[in-house]
Specification:
Keywords: Cytoplasm, DNA-binding, NAD, Repressor, Transcription, Transcription regulation. This protein is of the alpha/beta class. The chain contains nine helices and ten strands. Helices cover 41% and strands 16% of the residues. 27% of the residues are buried. The structure holds nicotinamide-adenine-dinucleotide.
Length: 254
Amino acid sequence: MATGRAHRPATRSRGIPEATVARLPLYLRALTALSERSVPTVSSEELAAAAGVNSAKLRKDFSYLGSYGTRGVGYDVEYLVYQISRELGLTQDWPVVIVGIGNLGAALANYGGFASRGFRVAALIDADPSMAGKPVAGIPVQHTDELEAIIRNDGVSIGVIATPAGAAQQVCDRLVAAGVTSILNFAPTVLSVPDGVDVRKVDLSIELQILAFHEQRKAGEEATSGGAAPPPPAVRTRPADDGPDGEVPAVMPA
Ligand SMILES: NC(=O)c1ccc[n+]([C@@H]2O[C@H](COP(=O)([O-])OP(=O)(O)OC[C@H]3O[C@@H](n4cnc5c(N)ncnc54)[C@H](O)[C@@H]3O)[C@@H](O)[C@H]2O)c1
């Protein structure tokens, strides 16, 4: 095992703050890049910069994992990759179904990043009978009539909804009734789910609206400064722990 780490025994049951959980994928992405370059250790400052997170926050986050690094050496890259992957549940295979195989569903099915992160696309499901059997990303599309059987047979716990908004709640209800307990919703609608079911919502148009707000504010600042001086850097005021550092997550709780 590589040197250069000091860690407490993992206490898997402790509560890790949601904001820390939201930053773990950012650390993992940065660490994976280091691992691919065979970098053995990394300082908290280097890793924080690579992940776009404040280094004090990173150290605090890692303390929840029981990982403290070694003074003068830093963190063991491979061990942290393992530790964060384990914490996120990525050391096991997660079969995922995608429902609604139109433009977006097909693009998601073709995205190679899921498999490399432990998410196996178990099935593609669509209500359009003419799509049944047609391969998308090498997987034949199955009709919604088979949704319940697919979920039970494959032990699927994560469902991705990429249907039109009007169909999303009904699809969600069927997924949940069949045993799905986590939903990633791309449809622009708010889903109701029973306790114990987690929903994350992705809405790129909301992200664009937030950027539009900042663009408008920057333009206003430029106008009031008469264009003579460059505008001051935008200061984002937000609670310290409401999401990954320095960015509003594109995936948000429903
Ligand atoms: N979150 C985002 O950032 C984002 C970006 C783009 C699109 N979207 C949303 O994603 C959804 C899909 O967009 P698209 O461009 O792929 O649409 P699309 O019309 O190309 O595809 C929708 C697919 O859903 C299928 N469908 C309809 N009802 C269904 C049902 N009850 N069960 C299963 N499948 C059903 C249709 O047959 C079709 O194949 C829309 O709600 C859209 O608004 C979200």
